[in-house]
Write a structure and sequence with these properties.
Blueprint lengths: L6 H4 L3 H4 L11 H43 L7 H9 L4 H21 L4 H28 L2
Helix pairs in contact: 3-6, 4-5, 4-6, 5-6
């Protein structure tokens, strides 16, 4: 048995195009709202996943940088060496000034080589905390050396 396809079924005619929309042909507001809510939740889930992925990448980059910051490399000295040198000085003000100058060089170098925005923020927060801790220790050590 053959299926007959008429010309009017292939191409719309003016008569078919002029048919008015009836309530049965429309999408209900509940269905439209459900589609919007589903797409919103999906977009939120994808965004949350991407943010978590970037945080993990930033944390990994920071962990790799911490070793270079403390031990140094061929371009900048390590923070541990700078802290020891400053702690051996006898003048607390001069020791603090020396540490801050060297710290700034180390911070600038490692900030330039950091790739992602989140890693830069985390690195800056870590370095500021470390600077405060080291500054207190250096002042105490250099005061004891007087």
């Amino acid at each position: 048995m053959a299926i007959k396809v008429y010309q009017s079924q292939i191409r719309p005619t003016e008569e078919i195009g002029a048919v008015e929309t009836t309530p049965g042909m429309r999408v209900s507001m509940e269905t439209a709202a459900a589609l919007g809510a589903a797409s919103s939740k999906f977009t939120g889930a994808v965004t949350d996943f991407i943010i978590e992925k970037e945080k993990v990448k930033a944390d990994t980059e920071i962990l790799e940088k911490k070793e270079k910051i403390f031990n140094g490399d061929e371009n900048v000295p390590g923070l541990s060496k700078v802290k020891d040198d400053a702690s051996k000085m006898e003048d607390p003000d001069q020791a603090d000034k020396f540490y801050k100058e060297e710290f700034k060089k180390i911070q600038d170098y490692h900030s330039q080589t950091t790739k992602s925005f989140l890693a830069k923020r985390s690195l800056d927060a870590f370095l500021q905390k470390q600077a405060v801790e080291d500054s207190i220790l250096i002042r105490n050590s250099s005061t004891n050396n007087l």
